[in-house]
């Protein structure tokens, strides 16, 4: 799954840390039961072996279907007389029988189904249970039914989302990740529809009534939350990897966009196979696009992806879909599907590994600097999330499993070196192939593959929250030619005494490399960080320092405070190959806007640094400096070969302002990049007051990938506020094209634009249901004292019964 918020799952309560104490580092032989999160694993007294799921009479109007599921299971205890399956309240059992045709009694306990066996099973004995049922699904819970409502690029379709407890909405099963099975999915659908599911396509037979029945067979075991189905009028674009089918299922109108986007999929499979030493394990790999999705979901051998396929022009802005989404979801075929977390407290084993492998792919294809670029973005996300609520990796509902998981694995790779790291990952995957794992299993694989016990690393980075904050101070003795670095770890635990996890480590232990530049050459020294306050002495230097880099190579996830002379920082910015270290140096230099040497160093980086991300960061910092330093560099940067740098330059020029800057922003409107156009339209609408109406018209008429330019224009109109009805009416004219129109009207309403509020209320009577839905969402964001009077006046005349009921509910909820 690509960076969604973790659903409110966790059907089973968590008390894991009551069994664990962190008084000392874990020892290699420590029992697994001491590790947090292990008590989260769900107990059950049977083993799921196989399920055959048959679906028919799928009704979009009632979000319902008829089904049959044939479950083969084996007893894990003596005298097993009943089986408890997960099945939502919307599943009504119409018949239950065993392999001999004997009727079986069933009973309900909330969202579980108890099936009483005809006779008790012996330990290890298997049984087959057939359940016929009718399922009424709450739309969006397990299955999402989308009917054609007139919107372009949104055909009728159905798709599933099993993680974590969604699949029990459409068939009875065991819905925890610690049991794996094989399965078949058989669906009867209208002739125009294509069915995509897991595993191998066995058959696709046309029926006498014009429908057809498709059968897929998943013949290697995996977790039941990964069972999936997608039904839509798809075009199939075929590819292959070493003879294994690789297919892209997209809407017919997207056919021309599919291969430019998905065409590198076989190369990713090849790269992951080589890196892990584990061949792609499934019968095929399919990627199918669906509407109203949050990103991607790694159903085994059949990944669902949102239907935002980039057009040709969008690739200049490095779209997230291509850069992150496809490689991330594909990595799950090894990490999450082949090997699966035993319980949701160890979900980082799925998501952190998939995020890490994404960066590993780009490093294998484009080099270390591109992967540093990838992991730098992970670092910024990690810091933002950790600042709001710091949690360990291993915790129920942990909020940082994607970026922190990726960064911790990157640290581990740098610490072990490639050969030992990938040997450890290979061993981990082979030990847990088609099975489950917990966090300690990775540590044990590292220990057995390399002989290195990293229990302390695990304790500090996996089981505790936070990261080290270093405060470094340098002193050079010219007599002894020795540089002393006082290194203090200043992190403090912010968790309350009632927190369910241990406190942050007071000391993070790590090797560190210090690079000292001198006029006679560079000196590298290695040290161990093992105290809250320690001094590292680098002696016998050939001369006075001209640059000091703490943690050369950026191997530690950290925050760093290190006061330095401008000349040292400028030298680091110019010479250090690491992107994080350059970004840090730019930030330090930017604290001195009155220092012309600092400004000159940043201006030079903005125009001549050898990687676009450094140029972008430098450009972003320039508005803090005098215009005499900033403007010449920004004039160069706005013509950069990188769209990201050009967009940053336009944003920076808009911040500085003035006639010359505004003229440069106007020129950017004709840029080939959507990102640059987006950066330009906001300041043009806000600052170019003489031509505001024209810029609003251009911005609202602009076509762009994911509507970024139009949305920026709507945002700008909302920022300037109401008062001109022609602007408000222009926003309202887009009510059927983007939900951002309703959101902008809501913002204008909140700022006192009565005309915007009236238009928003009027849109509740729009003939298009999706417009009414977008409008209701926007109105819910407004303060009740603002929205309720006009809603109360209008509710009686609303024509659509569903909309009227929703408005009534909204009014009653606030009174």
What percent of the residues sit in helical stretches (DSSP H or I)?
A: 25-40%
**Extended strand count:** 28
CATH superfamily placement of the domain at 46-232: tricorn interacting facor f3 domain
Low-confidence stretches: 4-34
Q: What is the first-to-last residue Cα distance?
A: 40 Å
Biggest beta-sheet profile: 7 strands, mixed
Tell me, briefly, the overall form. globular
Task: Using brief descriptors, characterize the structure shown.
single chain, 815 residues, alpha+beta, 7-stranded mixed sheet, 5-stranded mixed sheet, 25 helices, 28 strands, globular
Can you offer a commentary on this structure?
The protein has 815 residues and is an alpha+beta fold. It has a domain at 46-232: tricorn interacting facor f3 domain (Immunoglobulin-like, Sandwich). Helices cover 37% and strands 24% of the residues. The strands form seven sheets. The chain has a seven-stranded mixed β-sheet with strand order 4-7-2-1-10-13-12, with no helix packed on it. Strands 15-16-17-19-18 form a five-stranded mixed β-sheet, covered by helices on one side. The protein has a four-stranded antiparallel β-sheet with strand order 8-9-14-11, with no helix packed on it. The radius of gyration is 29 Å and the shape is globular. The protein starts with 45 loop residues before the first strand and ends with a helix. The relative contact order is 0.06. The model is unreliable at 4-34 (pLDDT under 50).
């Amino acid at each position: 799954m690509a960076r969604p918020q973790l659903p409110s799952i966790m059907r089973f309560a968590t008390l894991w840390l009551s069994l664990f104490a962190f008084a000392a580092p874990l020892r290699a032989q420590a029992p697994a039961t001491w590790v947090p999160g292990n008590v989260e694993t769900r107990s059950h007294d049977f083993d799921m072996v196989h399920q055959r799921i048959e679906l028919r009479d799928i009704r979009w109007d009632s979000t319902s279907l008829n089904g049959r599921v044939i479950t083969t299971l084996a007893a894990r205890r003596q005298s097993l007389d009943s089986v408890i399956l997960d099945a939502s309240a919307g599943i009504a059992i119409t018949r239950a029988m065993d392999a001999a045709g004997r009727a079986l009694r069933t009973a309900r306990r909330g969202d579980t189904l108890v099936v009483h066996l005809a006779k008790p099973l012996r330990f290890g004995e298997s049984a087959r249970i057939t359940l016929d049922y009718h399922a009424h699904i709450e739309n969006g819970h397990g299955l999402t039914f989308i009917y054609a409502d007139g919107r372009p690029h949104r055909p009728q379709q159905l798709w599933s989302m099993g993680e974590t407890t969604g699949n029990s909405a459409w068939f009875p099963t065991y819905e925890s990740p610690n049991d794996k099975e094989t399965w078949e999915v058989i669906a009867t659908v209208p002739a125009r529809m294509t069915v995509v599911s897991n595993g191998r396509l066995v058959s696709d037979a046309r029926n006498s009534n014009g429908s057809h029945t498709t059968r897929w067979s998943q013949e290697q075991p995996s977790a039941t939350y990964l069972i999936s189905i997608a039904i839509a009028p798809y075009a199939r674009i075929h590819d292959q990897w070493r003879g294994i089918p690789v297919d892209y299922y997209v809407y017919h109108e997207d056919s021309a966009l599919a291969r430019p986007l998905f065409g590198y999929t076989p190369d990713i499979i090849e790269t992951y196979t080589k890196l892990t030493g584990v061949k792609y394990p499934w019968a095929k790999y399919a990627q199918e696009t669906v509407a109203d999705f949050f990103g991607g979901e790694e159903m085994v051998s059949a990944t669902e992806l949102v239907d935002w396929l980039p057009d040709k022009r969008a690739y200049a802005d490095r779209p997230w879909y291509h850069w992150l989404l496809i490689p991330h979801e594909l990595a799950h075929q090894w990490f999450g599907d082949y090997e699966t977390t035993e319980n949701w407290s160890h979900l980082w084993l799925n998501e952190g590994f998939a995020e890490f492998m994404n960066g590993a792919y780009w490093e294998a294809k484009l080099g270390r600097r591109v992967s540093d670029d990838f992991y730098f973005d992970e670092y910024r996300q990690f810091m933002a999330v950790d600042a709001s609520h710091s949690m360990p990796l291993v915790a129920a509902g942990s909020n940082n499993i994607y970026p922190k998981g990726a960064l911790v694995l990157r640290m581990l790779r740098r610490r072990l070196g490639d050969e030992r790291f990938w040997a450890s990952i290979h061993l981990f995957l082979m030990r847990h192939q088609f099975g489950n794992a917990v966090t300690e299993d990775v540590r044990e694989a590292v220990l057995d593959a390399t002989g290195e016990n990293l229990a302390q690393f695990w304790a500090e980075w996996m089981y505790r929250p936070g990261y080290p904050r270093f405060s470094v101070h340098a002193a050079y003795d010219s007599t002894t030619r020795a540089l002393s670095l006082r290194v203090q770890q200043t992190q403090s635990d912010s968790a309350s005494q009632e927190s369910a996890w241990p406190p942050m480590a007071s000391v993070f232990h790590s090797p560190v490399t210090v690079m000292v530049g001198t006029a006679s050459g560079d000196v590298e020294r290695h040290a161990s960080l093992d105290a809250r306050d320690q001094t590292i002495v680098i002696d016998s230097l050939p001369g006075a320092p001209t640059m000091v880099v703490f943690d050369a190579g950026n191997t530690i996830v950290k925050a760093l405070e290190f006061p330095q002379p401008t000349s040292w920082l400028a030298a680091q910015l110019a010479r250090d190959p690491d992107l994080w270290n350059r970004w840090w140096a730019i930030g330090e230099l930017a604290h001195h806007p009155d220092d012309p040497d600092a400004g000159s160093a940043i201006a030079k980086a903005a125009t001549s640094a050898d990687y676009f991300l450094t140029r972008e960061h430098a450009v972003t910092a320039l508005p803090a400096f005098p215009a005499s330093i900033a403007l010449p560099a920004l004039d160069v940067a706005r013509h950069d070969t990188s769209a990201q740098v050009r967009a940053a330059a336009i944003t920076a020029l808009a911040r500085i302002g003035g006639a010359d800057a505004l003229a440069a922003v106007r020129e950017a409107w004709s840029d080939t990049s959507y990102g640059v156009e987006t950066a330009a339209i906001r300041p043009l609408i806000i600052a170019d007051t003489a031509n505001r109406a024209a810029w609003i018209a251009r911005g609202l008429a602009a076509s762009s990938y994911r509507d970024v330019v139009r949305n920026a224009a709507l945002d700008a109109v909302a920022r300037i506020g109401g008062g001109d009805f022609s602007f408000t009416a222009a926003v309202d004219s887009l009510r059927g094209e983007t939900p951002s129109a309703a959101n902008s009207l809501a913002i204008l309403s909140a700022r006192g634009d009565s005309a915007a509020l009236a238009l928003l209320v009027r849109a509740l009577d729009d003939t298009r249901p999706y417009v009414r839905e977008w409008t209701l969402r926007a109105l819910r964001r407004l303060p009740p004292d603002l929205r309720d009077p006009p809603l109360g006046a209008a509710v009686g005349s609303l024509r659509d019964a569903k909309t009227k009921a929703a408005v009534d509910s909204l009014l009653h909820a606030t009174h």
